[in-house]
Structure formats: structure tokens, C-alpha cells
Amino acid sequence: MSIVQTLEQGVLDGIRDLYGKEVDAAQVTLSPTRKEFEGDYTVVVFPFTRLARKKPEEIGAELGQWLQDRLDTVTHFNVIKGFLNLSISDAYWRRFLEDVYRDESYGLQPARDERFMVEFSSPNTNKPLHLGHIRNILLGWSVSRLFEALGYEVVRVQIVNDRGIAICKSMLAWQKFGRGATPESAGIKGDHFVGRYYVLFEQKFREEYRAWQQSEAGQAVLRANRKEGQGEEDFFKAFKNTYFNEHSPLGAEARDMLLKWEAGEPDTVALWKQMNSWVYEGFDQTYDQLGVDFHKTYYESDTYLSGKDIVAEGLEREIFFRKDDGSVWVDLTDAKLDEKLLLRRDGTSVYMTQDLGTARMRYEDYGARRMVYVVGDEQNYHFQVLFEILKRLEEPYADGLHHLSYGMVDLPTGKMKSREGTVVDADDLIAEVIEEARKNSLERGTLADLSPEEQEAVVRKVGLAALKFFIVKVHPQKRMVFNPRESVDLQGQTGPYVQNAYVRIQSVLRKAGALNAEAATGYAQLLPDERDLIARLYAFPEVIAEAAAAYDPSEVANYCYDLAKAYHKFYHDHSILRAESEAAKAFRLQLSTAIARVLRNGMDLLGIDMPERM
Asked: Which CATH class is domain 3-88?
């Protein structure tokens, strides 16, 4: 039984013994004591005033004395108004530290017979991975690691959007303007190469649109459709999509290419396969740099067919309905979600169709009844609709779905736009933070005695830690600004700062040599800072559980930062290798070892490696 469980049960027993009343465990509020007060854990006694018919201060004093008399783990207590602060014995904390010291996998739970699926990244094949994808990838990876730490069998998947009008835009641009170029001939990474043609299509389309606006046909549309008081520029901005779908020659060619692809026209399919293969090779290189992998990749070019089958099934069961123009819809107005299109009038599928097919296909493959979709918050409505449709279809996994909605990432220079080519590519950003780490390393000169290969390995670990930690430390639902220079700061709330605590401990342990753990048993009285550090270690498993329950890796990131900060302060304020006794030295080395282990395990959950040197 953990100390928290022991105290909770003690409170229940004490209330029964003192006041003859049974209370529910949910009424016991127990939390770590605030730093400005003496104690380790605080019990809120206000809920017991009615049944005891006494003032909170009286209840706190009586319950505190009862716990101190009967629990050998409670050494003393104090009462502040309605809060009972309990101090745990040094002997308990020493025994706990010894257990952590011996346990390499402290914080990780044993395997359970339950499968959990996480979908993340899920890029489009018309552009390279960018900064927004990085946040998605890091959140998905960290959530998958959190649930692995809880003992789940985790399946990591991605769904690649390899079809649709956006992909046809890049294909058409290459066909019209590429002149047979390849990534190899252009000397450009495959996903970057294809992404340039997506941007080129947008540029050519804008040129076409501007010319049409000044044409007689464009002006006629303006005169016929402009609303009263609407300026010409505002009208054409709002009319852009209509122009693409109804007037644009380039738009017509792109739509025709999509229809040919869905019909299986050989030349179109061959071009599609070739360009996608370039992109996949580029994606894999980026994933490898980030240390990310997937158990399976699904492709919308496969899943949309399954989605069409589900739509046919829903029509037969009268869950969906067909409109007069032949399009298929689902009416979700009773769930306050409006009507949703599932198949266009020409029979082509939409994203919802594909997601229905993907969900069922994954369940058939893995049987996971719990699944998380890591997708930006602009898709909140989409997932509300998807989950509602799956419930109406009575899919067996429908109640276990969760949308991990996250805010967008901006740079200090502002927002990014894919079609305009103003996106920061993931590869460029990775290279930038590694270069910042390299500059910092050269300025400090701390790696000069290592070989160039060893220096580069350290620099990469520090740079990637800077990138990953800076992004993951922010609550997923918050929009954020990523600043590469700030991310590598050794003094701020950064990955390198946490790494530095781990490296500092490794340096201490190397200098100490072999540790005589038995000598630590002679250390009788803990300092307040030592108790604080051990209590932080004690909280680690609960932090993991709470972070997983909230799908929020930032809780682990901030825990690691707080632990590192507390250790840096302890290192500054107390001697370790020159401690006042051999027992104190052995104890502090034992404590340092346990802290390093927890920092390593915690940062590993975020996909961050810890270097031995910095």
C-alpha cells in the first residue's frame, strides 16, 4: 500500500473511531503540502465538520493526533484552519528511496492485457512535414509512450492522405511545368520536391484568377453576384473557391485528374505512385531524425473504398439518406451537429467517408477498443461528427474514441501558410535547433576533449531535446509560439536545462566512483531539501497516470523541469562528495542516482535522450 493509500485509509478509520461515522473515500482530499507550510501531505477536514459537529481546527487536531498515535509513518502534524498537515517519517522516505535506487524501471507499470491505439502525424502527400506536424508527432509519440508506461500494448498508426484534389494539384503542376525533373536531378529531398509543385500550382492559379477578374467574363460575374456595399476585392476573395470549381481551367484539369485517378486510368495512377514514392522517402527521413516510428501506415487511397461500403450499409439501415441530386448525407441535427455530406453527387468520397473506412479497418486489424486521434483543433467539429456517426452505426469501439485536439504553432514572425510556401519545414527547423545547440557548445567549449563524432552525437541530442521539450511542455490545447533560440537556453524551462541536471549527476557519480549503498543506512535525519526531492520522486508514477488520463504530456515535461530545478538548487546548497559524513555522502549519491533515473525515464516518455556530457 502506498503512503497516500495508507493515509487515506487512516483518515477513514480515524473518522469512524473518533466520531462513529462512515465516510466515503471520495470525501478524503489528500494532496502534497504547500511549500510554505511544514509537512508532506495535507488533509482537508472541512468535509467532516457536519458529521463531527465540531470546528475544522478541532477536527484537524483530533484527527492529526489519532493518525500520529497509530501510524508509524506519521511523525508529527500541524493544523492551519481547516487543513491538517502531516509529516512522514524519515525512515519511510529512506526505505522508499532504497526501492527507487534499485528499480531501473521505476514509474513504469506491469503489462496489462489491453490494446490502445494512437493515430498521429497523418500528413498529406502534396507537401513536406512542417512545424505544425512536429507538434502533432511529438504529442502523438509522447501519448503513446505514456500509455506504454501504464502497461498498455500501444499501436502507433498514421493515415496518409494520398488522394484528393490537393494531391492532384501537385501532380498537375509537375505534369505541366516539371519537364521530367526528379528529386535526384533537382538535388532536393523528395517531399520538398513535390511540395514545391503544390506551391507552384497555387502561384499559377492565382495568376489565372487575377487575369480572369479583369476579363469581361469575370466582371460580368462581379456585376451579377456582388452584394450591396461589397467591394470588388472582397467579392473576389470570397468567390475564389467558386471560381476554382466552376470557372478555372486549372481547376477543371485538377478535378478531371481526380476523376481519372478514381477511375483507375493507368497514366494518372502511375504518376500518382511515382510522386507519392518521392514523398514517402522524404517523410521516412524526417521521422528517423525525430526518432519516431509507426506499427502501421494506412492510406486513404485504400480506406475510402471501405468508407463507401459503410455508406452503402448506412443507407440500407436508413441511418443515412440520399438527396435528389444523388449525394448521400447523415442527419445529425438531433445531436446539434447539422447534416453532414458523406458522398458527393458524382459518387466521389469526402474526408468523412475515408475516416469511417479507416476506423473500421483498424479495428479489424488490431481490435483496439480505445483510440486517440491527434489532430489540430480546427478539426474539432469533424471529430464530433465522426464519433457520432460511428455510434449510430453501433461500431464496437465507438465509445473508446478520443480526439486529442491541439492548438496551432506559430513562429515569432507569425502564422504559416502551406499553399503560399511560407511554412517552416520540419527538416529546416530540426537543422536550425541543432545548429543553435552546436553554437552554444562551441561557446562553452565543454566537449573539446571528445571526438568529432561524439561531439556531433551530443549536439544532436541537445538540439532535439530543445525542440521536443519546448513544444511538449505547452498544454496541447494552447496555441503556442516556437522560438528556436529560446529553446536551447540552459537556464530557462528547456530540454537542455533538464539534460544538464542529468549530466551534472553523471559527473558527480563518475567522480565518486563505486557507491557503498549500505553506508546510506546510517544517515539518520533528512534535510528538508532531501525530503522534498524524495517526495518529488514519489509523485512520478502518479504524474504519468494523470498525464495519460488527460492526454497531456506537458505534465511530465513540467514535472521533469521542476525535479531538475530542485536538484540544481540542492547541488548548489549542499555538498555531496564532501558531505559531512560517509553516511551523508552515500545517501546523497543514492538520491542523485534515483533522480537521474527518474529524469531519464521521464524524458524518455517525451522522446528525449539524455547525454552523458554536454
From this structure: alpha beta
DSSP 273: H
pLDDT tens track for 62-104? 999 999 999 999 999 999 999 999 999 999 999 999 999 999 9
Q: Please list the helix, strand and coil fractions of the chain in percent, rounded to the nearest 5, in that order.
A: 60, 10, 30
Angle (deg, nearest 10), helices 528-538 and 582-604: 30
Domain with CATH 3.30.1360.70 in the chain: 3-88
- Rounded to whole angstroms, how far apart are CA atoms 286 and 191? 10
For 6, 7, 514, the CA distances from 11, given in Å and listed in that order, are 9, 6, 43
Q: Report yes or no: 609 and 498 within 8 Å, Cβ to Cβ.
A: no
pLDDT for position 86: 97
Q: CB count, 10 Å around CB of 155?
A: 20
Whole-prediction pTM: 0.90
- The pLDDT tens digits of the residues spanning 361-379 come to 999 999 999 999 999 999 9
Q: Residue 124's beta-bridge partner residues?
A: 161
By the 8 A CB rule, do 116 and 155 touch?
A: yes
Total length of the chain:
614
DSSP string across 176-245: HH-TT--HHHHT--HHHHHHHHHHHHHHHHHHHHHHHHHSHHHHHHHHHHPPTT--HHHHHHHTHHHHHH
